[in-house]
């Protein structure tokens, strides 16, 4: 989203203005209005800042107002930080909104007040590098979660963010290796950043608007299998192979306690983030060879290739970790979860049976006060039989 338009680049600047205007309209119209919240608000701020700053750059070029052009260039540098804040808010992390405001204001002031061209070149390379750091931070936050890495809509932005960060570092280092001239070398930097902005905006738009359109049911239904269907196929295959050697596997069904109350008081967006954090914690706590899937918001199923003693320890750890989940005040109560443990030694190797009885055991645990686990046994099986016999 960073850009430097040369005096001869008015046409490219106009193209950028068109792209940022379209991105702003789609972000506000689809993302923010359909799913209002802090993430979509921060993304809307990022694209709006990009649009207004690009207008300022083009206006400065056309009217030959150098102060306006430079200040707009500096303001544009804050957009990647606002985007980063939006994704952190969406992932349940502290957003650090001040970073975008500080970078936009500081960069605008610095570029507008530097008169010497050589020093302007150094200043621009510095603020360009600062903006690229937030693209790198976005990639780091994305890489820390398995559920984020599995979201294909984020991949284009991840790739271009890596390129953005590498370019920012290379540009910054080159400013020390080669003496600042403001000549052809700097013109090349301006051209690369101008073209890169178009690609970055397009990828950011996919990452921001795509999930909202997908989750809200806009457009045609997806023809590809869902993540849960993929989990079912993989888990069923692994259980079939394990049955041949009688390996001790289990299914653990985790369900958030008071899910309806949390959704009602905190909102659907906060509940979705809490559900994502629950899945992330399960992926972290359970062994790497486990399979983790989510059949619905607030529920996580784990296929664990471990014996009873190991599963007991893992259940204790995951229930403790759930109580420590922090969404920075978005959830009015301390989150807890209940777990249903369905071992193959009791029920066999059929995945549907294991998930079904595990879910029932989790409900029993929740009915006993929650924040505990229940193992599938004779009591759970009799309960299911009695329910099936009801008219």
UniProtKB/TrEMBL annotation:
InterPro entries: Nucleotide_cyclase, Rev_trsase/Diguanyl_cyclase. The keyword Iron does not apply. The chain crosses the membrane at residues 12-34, 41-59, 71-90, 97-114, 126-143, 155-179, 191-210. It comes from the Bacteria. Keywords: Membrane, Transmembrane, Transmembrane helix. The keyword Magnesium does not apply. This is GGDEF domain-containing protein. It comes from Microbacterium psychrotolerans.
């Amino acid at each position: 989203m960073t850009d430097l338009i040369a005096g001869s680049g008015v046409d490219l600047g106009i193209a950028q203005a068109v792209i940022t205007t379209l991105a702003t309209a789609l972000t506000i119209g689809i993302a923010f209005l359909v799913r209002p919240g802090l993430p979509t608000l921060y993304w809307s701020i990022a694209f709006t800042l990009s649009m207004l700053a690009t207008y300022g750059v083009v206006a400065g070029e056309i009217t030959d107002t150098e102060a306006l052009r430079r200040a707009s260039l500096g303001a544009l540098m804050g957009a990647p930080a606002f985007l980063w804040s939006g994704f952190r808010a969406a992932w349940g992390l502290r957003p650090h909104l001040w970073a975008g405001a500080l970078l936009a204001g500081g960069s605008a002031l610095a570029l507008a007040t530097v008169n010497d061209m050589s020093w302007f070149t150094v200043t621009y390379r510095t603020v360009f590098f600062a903006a690229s750091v937030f693209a790198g931070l976005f990639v780091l936050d994305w890489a820390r979660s398995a559920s984020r890495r599995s979201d294909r809509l984020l991949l284009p932005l991840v790739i271009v963010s890596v390129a953005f960060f590498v370019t920012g570092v290379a540009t910054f280092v080159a400013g020390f290796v080669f003496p600042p001239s403001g000549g052809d070398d700097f013109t090349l930097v301006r051209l690369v950043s101008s073209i890169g902005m178009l690609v970055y905006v397009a990828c950011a738009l996919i990452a921001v608007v795509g999930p909202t359109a997908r989750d809200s049911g806009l457009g045609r239904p997806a023809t590809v299998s869902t993540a849960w269907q993929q989990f079912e196929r993989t888990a069923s295959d692994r259980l079939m192979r394990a049955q041949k050697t009688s390996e001790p596997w289990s299914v653990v069904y985790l369900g958030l306690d008071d899910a309806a109350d949390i959704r009602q008081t905190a909102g659907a967006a906060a509940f979705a983030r809490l559900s994502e954090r629950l899945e992330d914690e399960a992926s972290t706590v359970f062994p790497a060879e486990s399979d983790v899937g989510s059949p619905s918001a607030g529920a996580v199923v784990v296929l664990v290739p471990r014996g009873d003693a190991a599963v007991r320890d893992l259940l204790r750890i995951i229930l403790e970790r759930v109580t420590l989940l922090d969404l920075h005040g978005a959830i009015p109560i301390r989150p807890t979860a209940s777990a249903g443990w369905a071992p193959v030694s009791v029920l066999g190797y059929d995945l549907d049976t294991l998930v079904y009885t595990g879910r029932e055991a989790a409900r029993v645990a929740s009915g006993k006060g929650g924040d505990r686990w229940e193992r599938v046994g004779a009591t759970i099986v009799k309960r299911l039989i009695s329910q099936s016999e009801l008219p």
